[in-house]
């Protein structure tokens, strides 16, 4: 199924709203790590009730080898199928518990984790490498019943150009390096991203 496109959603303008969403993500992780269930949450904020596609990225404490912190999970959805607040809760909980690349987050880790919420723009189809802007665009590839997604910060972190970005995206989707454009479709998107640092780990 191809990704849904829609008019641009209203971006986040207020620091208080960002902080509330980040706190909601952290408390959702804490709840699933301790009780296995998401916490109840109610809001009258109309923006929080707008459907949104969201990814949540978790990182551990920074160290000499991983200055940004070691990745501990990154999960989300490309379709705006749920209200923003619910999408944040769902992505945060899944990033902490079911990302197959990592063991589940433990309750003692929750406050040490840094969190990043990325709210995705509508998707736009990509027909050539010239349409990809590193640092602005994330990419989604779909082909042969497989899909892969990389957020905009990934090629910046690894100093990839557009061609390497697409090549690595193909590999993430378990597709051949040259799957696009002949055997897969490619979409680009931007994100509205914001972060909350974790508390310093004093256990070591």
Radius of gyration: 17 Å
Q: What is the CA–CA distance across the termini?
A: 47 Å
Low-confidence segments: none
| Strand ordering within the main sheet | 3-2-5-10
How is the biggest beta sheet arranged? 4 strands, antiparallel
Strand/helix succession: HEEEEHEEEEHHEE
The whole-number mean of residue pLDDT values reads 89
User: How large is the count of helical segments?
Assistant: 4
SS-based class: alpha+beta
Count of β-strands: 10
Beta content? 15-25%
Percent helix, as a range, is: 25-40%
Overall morphology: globular
Overview of this protein structure:
There is one protein chain. By secondary structure, the protein is of the alpha+beta class. Helix content is about 25%, strand content about 25%. It has helices spanning about 15-35, 85-95, 155-160, 160-170; strands at about 50, 55-60, 70-75, 80-85, 115-120, 125, 140-145, 145-150, 185-190, 190-195. The strands form 3 sheets. Strands 3-2-5-10 form a 4-stranded antiparallel β-sheet. Helix 1 crosses helix 2. It starts with 14 loop residues before the first helix and ends in an 8-residue tail after the last strand.
Descriptive terms for the model:
4 helices; 204 residues; 4-stranded antiparallel beta sheet; alpha+beta
Offer a quick outline of the entry.
The protein has 204 residues and is α+β, with helices and mostly antiparallel strands. 25% of the residues lie in helices and 23% in strands. It has a 4-stranded antiparallel sheet with strand order 3-2-5-10.
């Amino acid at each position: 199924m191809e990704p849904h496109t829609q008019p641009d959603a209203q971006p986040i303008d207020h620091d208080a709203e960002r902080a509330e969403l980040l706190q909601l993500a952290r408390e959702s992780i804490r709840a699933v790590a301790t009780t296995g269930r998401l916490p109840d949450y109610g809001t009258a904020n109309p923006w929080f009730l707008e459907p949104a596609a969201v990814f949540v990225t978790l990182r551990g404490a920074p160290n000499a080898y991983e200055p940004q912190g070691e990745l501990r999970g990154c999960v989300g959805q490309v379709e705006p199928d749920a209200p923003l607040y619910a999408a944040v809760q769902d992505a945060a909980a899944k990033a902490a518990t079911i990302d197959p690349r990592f063991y589940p987050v433990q309750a003692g880790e929750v406050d040490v984790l840094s969190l990043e919420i990325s709210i995705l723009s509508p998707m736009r189809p990509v027909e050539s490498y010239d349409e990809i802007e590193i640092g602005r665009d994330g990419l989604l590839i779909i082909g042969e019943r497989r899909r892969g997604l990389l957020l905009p910060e990934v090629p910046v972190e690894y100093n990839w150009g557009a061609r390497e970005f697409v090549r690595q995206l193909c590999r993430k989707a378990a597709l051949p390096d040259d799957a696009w454009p002949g055997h897969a479709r490619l979409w680009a998107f931007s994100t509205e991203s914001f972060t909350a640092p974790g508390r310093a780990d004093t256990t070591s």
